[in-house]
Amino acid sequence: MIGLIISGHLNFASGMASAVKAIAGEQENMVFIDFIESISPDELEQQMRAAIQSMSCEQVVFLTDLPGGTPCNRAMAIMMENPSVEVLAGVNLPMIVNAAFEREDTTASELLSVLREIGMTSIQDLREQLAMSSEPENEEDGLWTSNMQF
């Protein structure tokens, strides 16, 4: 199992924690670390390192909110020292939930590939999809059908 550390600005991580718990249930080897105003970047990195130490995993993936933000940069500093650590930045809830479900019997590299794909496909312009679905695609026996899927 791959350990997951989710970190972001203010209450990003704790908000994701409550959503993940509601959708996927309680997760082991999954830590959520908020970068709140009352802690320094050094303290954030210490919490991240402690989270890695608390896990019984051969590989750890950091999932952070903003590329180039402090949580991402501190996770990258850890990654540069540890080949069993990976970092994926700019994550959203579908990516985090799927990470919880997909981290068994896979490598960190494979998990990152799956999560990047989920990130790209989870962003959808629903007005555009509705407009496409209202355009008739096929006519069978006088009935219009659409291929729109949700």
Automatic annotation (TrEMBL):
<keyword id="KW-0808">Transferase</keyword>
<keyword id="KW-0963">Cytoplasm</keyword>
<feature type="domain" description="PTS EIIA type-4">
    <location>
        <begin position="1"/>
        <end position="123"/>
    </location>
</feature>
<dbReference type="InterPro" id="IPR036662">
    <property type="entry name" value="PTS_EIIA_man-typ_sf"/>
</dbReference>
<keyword id="KW-0418">Kinase</keyword>
<dbReference type="InterPro" id="IPR033887">
    <property type="entry name" value="PTS_IIA_man"/>
</dbReference>
<dbReference type="InterPro" id="IPR051471">
    <property type="entry name" value="Bacterial_PTS_sugar_comp"/>
</dbReference>
<dbReference type="Pfam" id="PF03610">
    <property type="entry name" value="EIIA-man"/>
</dbReference>
<protein>
    <submittedName>
        <fullName>PTS galactosamine/N-acetylgalactosamine transporter subunit IIA</fullName>
    </submittedName>
</protein>
<feature type="region of interest" description="Disordered">
    <location>
        <begin position="131"/>
        <end position="150"/>
    </location>
</feature>
<keyword id="KW-0598">Phosphotransferase system</keyword>
<keyword id="KW-0813">Transport</keyword>
<dbReference type="InterPro" id="IPR004701">
    <property type="entry name" value="PTS_EIIA_man-typ"/>
</dbReference>
<keyword id="KW-0762">Sugar transport</keyword>
